[in-house]
Amino acid sequence: MKLQVTQENLNRALSSVARVATSKNSLPILSNVLVKTSDNRLSLSATNLDIGITHYIGAKVSEEGSITVPARLMQDFVSSLPAGIINLDLAETKLKVTTDQYQSVVNGIVADDFPVMPAIANGKTWEVPGALLKKALQQVVFAASNDETRPVLTAVILHTFEGHLYMATTDSYRLAEKDLGPNTEDVTLLIPASALQDLLRILGDTTDPVRVTHDDQQVLFQVGDVELVTRLIEGKYPDYRKLIPQSFATQATLKRADLVNVTKVSSLFARESAGSVTIEVDEASGNLSIRSVASQLGENNANATASVIGSGSITLNSRYLLDGLNALSGETVTFGFNGKLEPTLLTDAKAPDYRHVVMPLKG
Amino acid sequence: MKLQVTQENLNRALSSVARVATSKNSLPILSNVLVKTSDNRLSLSATNLDIGITHYIGAKVSEEGSITVPARLMQDFVSSLPAGIINLDLAETKLKVTTDQYQSVVNGIVADDFPVMPAIANGKTWEVPGALLKKALQQVVFAASNDETRPVLTAVILHTFEGHLYMATTDSYRLAEKDLGPNTEDVTLLIPASALQDLLRILGDTTDPVRVTHDDQQVLFQVGDVELVTRLIEGKYPDYRKLIPQSFATQATLKRADLVNVTKVSSLFARESAGSVTIEVDEASGNLSIRSVASQLGENNANATASVIGSGSITLNSRYLLDGLNALSGETVTFGFNGKLEPTLLTDAKAPDYRHVVMPLKG
User: Fold this and answer.
1) Is A139 left (phi over 0), alpha (psi -120 to 50) or beta?
2) What's the predicted TM-score (pTM) here?
3) Is A275 in CB contact (< 8 Å) with chain B?
4) Which CATH superfamily is domain B124-242 in?
5) Measured between alpha carbons, how far is residue A25 from residues A28, A354, B144, B271 in Å?
6) Whole-angstrom Cα distance, residue A23 to residue A75?
7) Which residue in B80, B105, B268 is closest to A299 by CB distance?
8) Fold of B2-113
């Protein structure tokens, strides 16, 4: 293998793929990145056996070949080099990396040992606008579970319902759902949230469409010159739509920034009560008040003006409430609930494609 | 105690003092901040028994008094409040903190139990320009030792020598010395580096002179409305000046940024050899090259153009070399050394008031 690439391209490709390479795995080669020529391009790939990412860049190839090299060292090294031409020259398993000023030898492992993600055969392919996918991921991914004992809840469900494509997550304490608009494909995919966090990073500020190809086992996302493939999670996702309340005994509409501020301040006094805060809405005064359950440190009460229908109170986890408020991006938020033991819905009337549910705490 | 302060002032004062309050200490009151009226001012104080910081702010006091309250909660809380008037109202040990929108109660501990740093009696007082002190601290504090088994090396020595005031540190691996200019006081103070890190934070961008008052036990720094007092370290500081080489067999002068870059890149390949890099200077070619000692991962060689007198090579810890290069702030650096086992001196001909020594590794 012998070729020339620019530092800018090589650095960009290493940034895309290197994070997936992990030294935590027992297989040492998984902390390496596969560097491989194909025609007049160079591909860089990394995998943790569940997720694989490949980034293609232009290169001036004078000798074909492939090698795997330590991902972290290679990324740190290339990102420290000045912009300009980098020569890669492989001698057995030693990759010589040279520029005008630097001469390095990086010890590699032969590419034959590198695990390759199985290809998707006979998959269906469709497209989603990149900016829409990015926004949707930002609004739902964080509400997926980290608890590996219930694998389906660690997924983001991407599914068609009544002609629309939806993306949703729930960790059983809160729930987020985004309507991605009309879609003719009939799909139900349970995609690991961790893979979609990597996809979010790769999407960057792309305005290109993202090509999605899937079969029963895997899904492939193609964004420009980058490909991310991940295994799907098996199992049946809970019927989460049953948890989204449709009508409300109490509803308050107020500035989102106001509710964020009073919740943040109240949460400081709720550290010893696992973040528990009680929200009280009063129709007569048009007031929303938030109270931290008294603790050793002290207590807090804060008020915000709201447009109110019906009075009532509910106790929530302030962190989940803040996460939901941050996922909404409009100027106002509508906060609706029924009894003390029923879920609360956060919505923005101006952006009805996103719904966020927070389950109550027993007050 | 009953008073009004602005959120801006209270927040500023809490930011100055709260960091010294620590919950690690076995004495619970040390995680509190003392809030105390004095005439028409409010003082906020925190201490860890070694260092004490007090910040005075203006207040509209209608009832004198004092209380201690949890520093972290109080700081987080006040910094989250909107700008404007805050009312403080003490009822027994409960401090009511109210604004238009927020009503809080913070549970305190009576002020009588708060440890007070002893006052400095019959101390000498002198002044240092704030900007000069700040620059000096930035250039020397980091080279003090963290090793509590040799307490004197955890100090910054501030001492007079031949009519100049000097500040110096050494952890026995490297050494930094700053000339603060002519000074008529005859002092030798061993000040804990940790206290001077707090002072650095307090100095901010002040252009005011800093008043220094000391006796045999303590030193007090006064910067605007803030006072920092710290215990001095007892013992005899080593005669560090003997370690600073005066003449050189090999000397290279080059762009500081060039030496920083090649050292950074080389250090990536030196991770398995505890950061060891070898610098070779060649008079004939006017070249400085830096080589990472070969390791499992690979090896690196990098070059920079320099103005050279004498040839030679030396092995250094790349982290210490980078620390020294970052403490110099000029465009060029002069790198001088003698034998392989003798100290290296980093200087900037345009700023001769700062000298940085790095001890060699056995190559």
Assistant:
1) alpha
2) 0.90
3) no
4) DNA Polymerase III, subunit A, domain 2 (3.10.150.10)
5) 7, 37, 38, 20
6) 14
7) B105
8) DNA Polymerase III; Chain A, domain 2 (3.10.150)
Contact call for residues B177 and B206 (beta carbons, < 8 A): no
Q: What's the CA gap between B135 and A154, in Å, rounded?
A: 51
Identify from B104, B260, B303, B322 which residue to disrupt to test chain A contact, counting A C-beta atoms within 10 A and taking the largest count. B104
Check residue B326 and report its DSSP letter: H
Quick one: closest CA in A to B72, which residue?
A268
Containing H/E element for A327?
A: helix A318-327
Question: Of chain B residues 121-150, which have a CB less than 8 A from chain A?
Answer: none
ipTM, 2 dp: 0.86
Instruction: Write the DSSP string, A158-189.
Output: EEEETTEEEEEEE-SSEEEEEEEEE-----EE
What are B212-249's pLDDT values in tens digits? 999 999 999 999 999 999 999 999 999 999 999 999 99
For residue B54, which phi and psi values (nearest 5 degrees)?
A: -130, 135
Is A261 at the interface with chain B, CB within 8 A? yes
- pLDDT reported for residue A294: 66
Using CA atoms, how far apart are residues A78 and B280, in angstroms rounded to an integer? 23
Neighbouring-strand partners of residue B213: B125, B220
Nearest to A102 among B94, B297, B300 (CB): B300
Distance from CA of A336 to the nearest CA of B (A): 22
At B192-219, the pLDDT tens digits run: 999 999 999 999 988 899 999 999 999 9
CATH no. of A244-358? 3.10.150.10
> Scanning every residue of chain A, which has its alpha carbon at the shortest distance from the alpha carbon of B303?
A101
The pLDDT of residue B363 is 55
* Distance (Å, whole) CA A353 – CA A358: 17
Residues of A in contact with B96 (CB under 8 A): none
Q: Which of B178, B135, B132 is nearest to B157 (CA)?
A: B178
Per-residue pLDDT band at A363 (split at 50, 70, 90): low
Report the distance separating Cα B261 and Cα A94, nearest Å: 24
Please list the residue range(s) of chain B that carry CATH number 3.10.150.10.
Answer: 2-113, 124-242, 244-358
Give the pLDDT score at B21: 93
Which among B107, B296, B298 is the nearest to A104, CB-wise?
B298
> Running DSSP on this structure, what letter comes out for residue B233?
P
CA distance A238 to chain B (A): 39
* Residue range B65-124, pLDDT digits in tens: 999 999 999 999 999 999 999 999 999 999 999 999 999 999 999 999 999 877 888 889
